């Protein structure tokens, strides 16, 4: 397992994407989207002091764990957004967690010692 520590700043997303691509040996659009959605939510809403990302890749299974010391938040409890009746009724945002749930093969969350732990498991064959 490899780890990286990131500042809770949006410009660190580039470093995160590079870290993940190096572990996989290539880019994966779904993995990048999942990582971006989770990272941006942590930066924008958690009030964390740090973000640590652990990654393990045993072909075909990729496991990414996001750890932060921000506000306790279990994204697995967040309900899917309501589908708007028309495109004019659609709101920007609010789909990141839903998309992550749809694209990941498994998600696990726990809060321990003042830290959020979100583990994302994705087959990347």
Summary tags:
125 residues; five-stranded antiparallel beta sheet; 30% strand
**Largest pleated sheet:** 5 strands, antiparallel
Query: What proportion of the residues form beta strands (DSSP E)?
Result: 25-35%
Gap from first CA to last CA? 19 Å
Roughly what percent helix?
25-40%
Gyration radius (Cα, Å) is: 15 Å
Characterization of this structure:
By secondary structure, the protein is of the alpha+beta class. The protein is built from 3 helices and 5 strands. The protein has helices at about 15-25, 30-45, 95-105, and strands at about 1-5, 50-60, 60-70, 105-110, 115-125. A hairpin with a 2-residue loop joins strand 2 (about 50-60) and strand 3. The radius of gyration is 15 Å and the shape is globular. The chain starts with a strand and ends with a strand. The mean pLDDT is about 90.
Topology:
Blueprint lengths: L1 E5 L6 H12 L4 H17 L5 E8 L2 E8 L27 H8 L2 E7 L2 E9 L2
Antiparallel strand pairs: 1-2, 2-3, 3-5, 4-5
Brief summary:
By secondary structure, the chain is an alpha+beta fold. It is 30% helix and 30% strand.
């Amino acid at each position: 397992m490899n780890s990286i520590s990131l500042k809770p700043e949006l410009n660190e997303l580039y470093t995160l994407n590079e870290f993940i691509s190096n572990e996989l040996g290539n880019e994966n659009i779904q993995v990048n989207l999942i990582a971006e959605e989770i990272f941006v939510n942590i930066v924008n809403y958690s009030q964390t002091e740090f973000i640590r990302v652990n990654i393990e890749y045993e072909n075909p299974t990729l496991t990414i764990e996001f750890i932060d010391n921000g506000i306790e938040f279990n994204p697995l409890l967040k309900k899917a957004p309501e589908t708007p009746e028309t495109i004019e009724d659609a709101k920007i945002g609010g789909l990141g967690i839903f998309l992550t749930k749809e694209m990941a093969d498994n998600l696990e969350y726990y809060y321990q010692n003042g830290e959020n732990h979100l583990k994302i498991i994705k087959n990347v064959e």
